[in-house]
Design brief:
There is one protein chain. The protein is of the alpha+beta class. The chain is built from 2 helices and 17 strands. Among the domains are: 114 residues, minor pseudopilin epsh fold (3-Layer(bab) Sandwich), CATH 3.55.40.10; 95 residues, Immunoglobulins (Immunoglobulin-like). The protein has a 5-stranded antiparallel sheet, with no helix packed on it. A 5-stranded mixed sheet has the order 10-17-16-12-14, with no helix packed on it. Strands 3-2-1-4 form a 4-stranded antiparallel sheet.
Length: 306
């Protein structure tokens, strides 16, 4: 009889094993697979965005360097000018014929210059130099979580995600034919060239004049200054003063790397309100700060430097 019981128990266990997974077990497996797949998809998307950012910035840096060399080679001008926050025009001699023309390039994926920021415009003269001592501009993905920045010095040097300081002014010694330079050495070309200094670093830190935003019903909102500079990663803090002819609440918006404090503030009619501005990381560029009331919006620009 014990043998019969053992055989029956064995048959029941075999039947359970042959029945496969229960519904609850299947649901648990599906849930686990779904969570793992979601995490994998997020990582893939993040990696793709990081790759798009890296490729876009490296391609732009290459075009800037080629434009500079082209200007020196042709003894003419070349340029890299952004037409929108995700597309730029390169004007240079692409095919070696001596004639410059323009090609448009688009940044990859959702990579773009932050909305409201000034669009970069870089022009090289016949010496391969720019008029600005340092051009700095940044790029980000749609959420602002990924950022990169580019520096173009007045000498045309291009760096990515590196800190480049403006070199101090130095004195130059006069060079004559007796010091080892042949008196017959000349620069080819028939047009006279401007040999004055290329960049002027004295105008970079000057605060911009107040700007007024006009809205419905005659309301006005004034921001002062309209542009200013702060140091990266909280090195310094800037102050912006808003004046309004109507009572209400001023709300603020800015890129994720910039903090405006407080985020909103009440203001009385013909009163003023102060906001402090600081950088949250090492990203350097010029960024737009928006101050909004119920009837108008006014924008100030902050330049984040070393």
């Amino acid at each position: 009889m014990s043998n019969n019981l053992s055989n029956n128990q064995f048959q029941r266990n075999s039947a359970k094993r042959e029945a496969g997974f229960s519904l609850l077990q299947l649901l648990m497996v599906i849930a686990i697979v779904g969570v793992i797949s979601a995490f994998a998809l997020i990582r893939i998307q993040s990696s793709q965005q990081a790759l798009n950012l890296q490729n876009s910035v490296r391609q732009l840096a290459g075009h800037i360097e080629k434009a500079r060399l082209d200007a020196v080679r042709r003894h003419a001008t070349s340029s890299v000018i952004f037409a929108s926050n995700n597309a730029y025009d390169v004007t240079m001699d692409f095919d070696g014929t001596g004639t410059a023309y323009t090609r448009r390039y688009t940044l990859q994926g959702d990579i773009a210059i932050p909305t409201g920021s000034p669009l970069p415009s870089i022009s090289f003269n016949w010496r391969g130099r720019t008029s600005a001592c340092t051009n700095t501009f940044s790029f980000q993905n749609s959420t602002g979580g990924l950022r990169s920045w580019v520096d173009v010095s007045d000498a045309g040097d291009v760096t990515v995600n590196s800190d480049v300081d403006v070199l101090p002014a130095v004195s130059y010694a006069s060079v004559t034919a007796t010091s080892g330079v042949s008196s017959s050495t000349v620069v080819t070309g028939t047009k006279p060239h401007d040999n004055s200094l290329d960049c002027d670093s004295t105008v970079g830190g000057t605060p911009g004049p107040p700007v007024t935003g006009n809205g419905s019903g005659g309301c006005k909102l004034i921001v002062n200054p309209s542009s200013f500079s702060i140091k990266k990663n909280g090195g310094t803090t800037g102050t912006v003063v808003l004046t309004s002819n109507t009572a209400g609440t001023i709300t603020t918006s800015s890129p994720t790397n910039i903090r405006i404090s407080p985020a909103s503030q009440s203001i009385s009619a013909n009163g003023s309100a102060s906001f402090s501005v600081s950088s949250l990381n090492t990203t350097r560029s010029t960024f737009a700060l928006n101050f909004t009331t119920s009837c108008t919006t006014v924008t100030a620009l902050v330049k984040v430097t070393n």
